[in-house]
Amino acid sequence: MKIVGQAGKEEVALVYIAELEPGKFVECVEAMEPPLPRERKWVLLVSTMFGCPVGCAMCDAGGFYEGKLSQEQIFAQIDYLIRKRYPDGRVPAKKFKIQFARMGEPALNPAVLQVLEELPQRYEVPGFMPSISTIAPRSAENFFNRLLEIKQRRYTGGRFQFQFSIHTTDEQLRDELIPVKKWSFAEMAAYGERFYVTGDRKVTLNFALAQGNPLDAAVLLRHFDPQKFLIKITPLNPTHQAQINGLVSHIDPWQHEEDHLVTTLRAAGYQVIVSIGEAEENYIGSNCGQYVLNHLRQNQPIRDGYTYPVQTAG
Q: What single DSSP character describes residue 200?
């Protein structure tokens, strides 16, 4: 793996552009949560595909697809990020999360499962928690069955974060935002019921919520038990795709006050997390849905995003 460029800020986040095969690039990210030091919390985001076949309406990392990464190509990103900071492979962070979410739908790549199996043996990572965020593609049933078995065997007691990316409770709008065949709410709920056991983290239902897209507590209650599922609402990050598709974030990442929607969801019995994070990451281009290489190819500015220059390596 060859790092050809990077952008960002040490105390917030750094995006690395990596060439894994001649002319084929991915990105990986390391991020912190100021003011916490790296020894308290450190988050890595790695790619699982060259591009993504899904093409979500708000995501700059899709729109093209050149194949799945191998197990070793995924590990190459993790190894670079870890050994850059900790050459001996021991990560002291109390909370050390790896999200398989920079580029690609992880449930469409079985190599992700091999990485989950082997990672705790490759490094000394006492605070490690993997994070899988998925749109629940219909073709990935075998992946989800194997993931459940790995979680039960290796990552019990709340040491795994599993998330369905839904974005709206309007099923027609959901199909427009995520234009592939995927599980229904009932199918996601059935899997979540199997996945969650006492002592686990609740299964997350994630909504990168755009203005005008419904998030209806009554719809959720028909399928998702508040004792086993929680709601996470995030800003719709500034991306070229969101701009092209006329999507505007329901949440202002710079100034947010909890609104009636959050109150209604909590009144329905759900734990609700309004996850805003560091707005500076929008300028770096390290947030979910952002992809620095795509921005460079677009060669045009975007409001509130992608302002950090890319430093070429070497």
A: S
| CATH number, position 28 | 3.20.20.70
Confidence tier at 314 by pLDDT (50, 70, 90): low
Domain extent for 200 = 2-312
Work out how many domains the chain is built from and give that number: 1
Report residue 44 as tokens: 């890595």
Condensed to tens digits (0 to 9), the pLDDT of residues 159-209 reads 999 999 999 999 999 999 999 999 999 999 999 999 999 999 999 999 999
Number of residues in the chain: 314
- Both tokens of 253, joined, read 């990442």
Q: Where are the alpha helices (DSSP H) in the chain?
A: 71-85, 111-122, 141-154, 171-177, 185-195, 217-221, 240-244, 260-267, 280-284, 292-298
pTM: 0.95
CA atoms within 13 A of residue 313's CA, in its CB half-sphere:
11
